[in-house]
Amino acid sequence: MLSLAALPLGVIGDLRSRRLVITWGVAVWSAATTAGGIARQFWQLFTCRALVGFGEAGYAPASQAIIAQYYKGRRRAFAIGVYSVGMALGGVLGIWLGGVIAERYGWRWAFIWMGLPGLVLALLASRLRELDRRPPPPIVETLRQWWQHGMHGVTHYVMPLAICAGIGAALAGFFSLFEGIPSQFSTALFGIGTSVGIAWTVWRLVPLAVRRTTAAGAVAAGAFDDFQDAAILVLRTPTLIWIFLGGAMVTFAVNGLVAWAAAFMQRMHGLSVAQVGAEFGVWALTGGVLGALVGGRLADRLQHRWHGGRVFTSGAGFVLGGPVCAALLLVHDLRWFGPLILATYFLYTWYNGPLAAVILDVVPPAVQASVLGAFVLFSHLAGDALAPPLIGYLSDRTGDLRTAMLLLPAVGLLGGLVILIALKTVARDMRRVIALDIHVSGQG
User: Fold this and answer.
1) Residue 410 placed within a domain
2) For the CA atoms of 294, 344, 341, 102, what is the dihedral angle to 10 degrees?
């Protein structure tokens, strides 16, 4: 869900408001996380987790596009690196605090307490200032608009869906109490109720669409044009082609390593998940934080003297990190494991700020969130969505998880080399964007 929703939400951010995409995204994923704590059946928990991914989808493209507005020069990669450090720290603290709460009070309270603070953060996100748009209204006015034009309007048109889905859920819950009735029957009841609700909602929206034909047509045309412009821009910008291809490969390597790390330590070194977190989590977190900050700073310093500085830093981290990651997988002495984890994550996180900064450097401001959304979509579907099942398949075929996981540093190294090909094109693509900005400013 995160991958599929990233591009359309990026387009909406460019067309409408990146601040609102972030605000509603944080609100949706926080509310869905909290709702996961009261889920009673698989489909309910599945829906909540899918909504979490939907809420998260628009956050990275919109937030990085806003950062790009504030940091247009030599500090852009470092600023995005700091942003990525916040994401990493939040993820680690969330897992840690969630584990503590789950251990003491149960997993349901972990979902609830991890979700509730996000609703407050959503309100704070509504105060973000976009430089090219009007400042946000006062907070009291924001809450009033949410109620009048947001909650009230949404409730009016979505009520049929809520009623039908609620009836379907109630019937599914009732029949699930009987042991002789298969679970598929309850799931089918919920699906039928939801489908009827969707059909009813669409039927009620038709008059609204007819009354607002002109406005709706303008929005639809704008969205389609933005999709088209983003796609054409990627295909016509050689730097973006290399960044997209290399980015998918390095995403494959990084997230494949994260996904299989615990299983690797259990099978190869006989450690439990708790031992892995306690003994090596700090090494990984330290390496990741230092890598993101050092990579961003190094990229900006090189960029000040050379147009390829950010491209070089993004690719070099994986070229240098590939052999280190391979050593991490091959070493048998656990005394070396901690330092190798730190070095691997240090080098593998250099790209966090610079790679996004490269995309922003060669993309006009009007479609930055759209292109970042396209990158998230492509890199996840062609990268980390493939890594876990492929490594598992190779492990089953070879009978050795270590051998299968050696594919990760190999693909990461290749991805770093592909990114470095963009050194030949990035200067020309940056000059094209600068010329376009000057042209647009002149017309304004």
Assistant:
1) yes
2) 80
276 is in which domain, residue-wise?
A: 233-443
pTM for the whole structure = 0.70
Q: Answer yes or no: is 274 within a domain.
A: yes
- Please provide the size of the chain in residues: 444
Residue whose token pair is 């809420």: 55
CATH number of the domain enclosing 391: 1.20.1250.20
CA 239 from chain center: how many Å? 22
Q: Give the chain's domain count.
A: 1
Q: Tens digits of per-residue pLDDT, 308-362?
A: 899 999 999 999 999 999 999 998 887 888 899 899 999 999 998 899 899 888 8
CA gap 214, 423 in Å, rounded:
45
Question: Running DSSP on this structure, what letter comes out for residue 137?
Answer: P
Rounded Cα gap, residues 95 and 78, in angstroms: 26
In this predicted structure, the answer to whether residue 208 has a pLDDT above a threshold of 70 is no
What is the spatial distance between Cα 85 and Cα 22, in angstroms, rounded to a whole number? 18
Q: How far apart are CA 91 and CA 89, in angstroms?
A: 5
Cβ-based neighbour number of residue 151 at 10 Å: 12
Q: Where are the alpha helices (DSSP H) in 37-151?
A: 42-57, 59-70, 76-105, 107-125, 139-145
Within 13 Å and on the Cβ side, how many CA atoms surround 40?
A: 9
397 in any annotated domain: yes
